[in-house]
Design brief:
With 355 residues, the protein is of the alpha+beta class. It has 7 helices and 11 strands. The termini are far apart.
């Protein structure tokens, strides 16, 4: 009888311990409730705000501790701890064999013999023909007007019913160096076709995020001076070739008095276009200086100093390009040989770039 009682008592003790462990787990789960599991919108937003505030406080504590450790190390004459470099898509990109090196002799030898060498050596002046697809849109003419103000020595011709091959022949006869075709879809410009003359290549870009000059706040009006051209991050062989194609659209002798800058910035294979003019402004800064001891009656002398400040003013338009294909020679849909074509199978990694 005594043994049976002991067994029942032990079983009761074990049952109590299990209940306590379950209660502890339930309390932990209640503490670690995620906002996404709460159905009530007000409670969910309150829990989310609380968690966000806690993370912010923890981050501040870490920053203060890091700064204190750095100050302590400097006071003791030791080396401060190294700054942590944040992980970004740019600095963790996959290694690419086609990245151009500054000591690549083969690349520079190819530059002297490619299709753009005559324009970039200033043997020929760029002359651009701009046209549209057969079905023009409402925003298309406004975009073309702004392109004409951006690119010097550019001329607009109506497309009409002419085939693109006939337009290429006409442009060759009239000694044009490039053709830009603005393609539209649903009354919105959505693509650009850039054809180098007389031997190519032909680049097809997808156009997105178009903002015209009138929609840019506090925009400036560009002058007729030849602009400075800035090309950023065209580092691979393909990017170098596309960069030279863009460079061949603009004259190589910018007029610095106009203070115009045209920028093509490549980031993650998206080419961002911006058009600015830089302005120099003089601002007066006042400084008070008092001789001797300060008193209520004496007033300090104010000395004004002029300070020159430079700032940018956007002229527009603003748009983004993405390369779809690069074709050898002039435009040819049937027998054309492509240097590079973007395919969906290439987008296997977010850290792989081509330009």
């Amino acid at each position: 009888m005594g043994g049976k009682r002991k067994n029942t008592e032990n079983e009761g003790m074990e049952g109590d311990e299990d209940i306590q462990n379950i209660n502890k787990k339930m309390k932990k789960e209640k503490r670690e409730i995620l906002p996404s599991s709460i159905k009530n919108k007000e409670k969910r937003s309150a829990v989310h705000a609380k968690l966000k505030h806690q993370k912010k406080l923890e981050k501040r504590k870490k920053l203060k501790a890091r700064d204190a450790a750095a100050k302590r190390a400097i006071e003791l004459g030791e080396e401060p701890p190294q700054k942590q470099i944040p992980r970004t898509i740019e600095n963790t990109r996959e290694a690419d064999e086609t990245v151009c090196m500054p000591d690549d002799e083969e690349l520079f030898a190819g530059n002297d013999a490619d299709e753009f060498s005559a324009i970039l050596k200033q043997d020929r002046t760029p002359k651009i023909l701009i046209t549209t697809c057969r079905f023009n849109s409402t925003r298309g003419p406004a975009f073309i007007n702004e392109l004409l103000s951006v690119i010097p020595n550019a001329h607009y011709f109506k497309r009409g019913t002419y085939d693109l091959k006939k337009i290429v022949e006409y442009a060759n006869n009239k000694e044009f160096t490039s053709i830009i075709v603005v393609h539209t879809n649903r009354r919105e410009p959505d693509a650009l076709l850039v054809i180098g003359l007389p031997y190519g290549p032909t680049a097809h870009f997808k156009l997105s995020s178009l903002v015209l000059r009138k929609d840019i706040k506090n925009h400036g009006n560009p002058t007729s001076h030849e602009p400075e051209l800035v090309l950023n991050n065209f580092t691979t062989r393909l990017g170098h070739r596309v960069g030279r194609l863009i460079q061949s659209l603009f004259p190589q002798s910018p007029n610095f008095r106009g203070r115009r800058v045209v920028t093509f910035h490549n980031q993650r294979d998206f080419v961002f276009f911006r058009h600015h003019r830089y302005i120099f402004e003089t601002k007066e800064t006042k400084q008070c200086e008092s001789k001797g001891k300060k008193s209520k009656d004496t007033k300090g002398e104010t000395i004004s100093k002029e300070k020159v400040i430079a700032r940018l003013q956007e002229c527009g338009p603003r748009f983004t390009l993405k390369l779809v294909s690069l074709q050898h020679g002039t435009f040819d849909t049937k027998g054309g040989e492509f240097e590079w074509v973007h395919k969906p199978e290439m987008d296997t990694s977010r850290r792989r770039f081509f330009l």
